[in-house]
Amino acid sequence: MAGPWCGTGAPLTLKTPIPTGLLGGSFNPAHTGHRAISLFAMDALALDETWWLVSPGNPLKSGADDMAPLSARLASARSMARRSRIHATDIESRLGTRYTVDTIAALVRRYPNRRFIWIMGADNIAQFHQWRDWRRLARSVTIAIIARPGYEGFTAASPASVWLRRFVRRAGSAQHWTQWRPPALVLLHFRPDPSSATALRRADSLWFRRFSTHSTGLRTPRFP
Question: What is the DSSP letter of 85?
């Protein structure tokens, strides 16, 4: 019987880690921009899957008064991810992790058969030094940075930018990222979808009512 296949086109064996992207966020709500970035990254990085880590609460956004309940944000993410190899999950809530560095450590322990890559927008570089144990995070997982066309990256004098720029790899070798040893970063240029969670909330502040368990009809798989 033929085995499963990974995004590189090579047959998976018991010793072949499954290349898996991780995109974290509030998803308040999820929108087409999240989906477009994820599908682009899956192609550019030859990923088998991408997991959307719907955060129970972003430490850098604490105190936000327009944050919808986790159940609604998770339902909106699952709805947006349908008919793709994107899986929305509330695993951070179930793991009890609050910071990305702890989530990554827990996932690596729990899923030794997977190789993870962290996907984030280039706008996060300026504040990356505010993330908990950001150097340890960069040493524990390869990072793919999605940037607008023309963005050269790492030119700002932020502490993270100065430290990270030495670890940038060529975009042309992005599909071989599983062979890299972190710290390792790759900069991928992508013309973003103009959708904005902020704009969607302004247009409909009660959007989350559409994603109650009674109104969506979505099943609630516990994956991962």
Answer: T
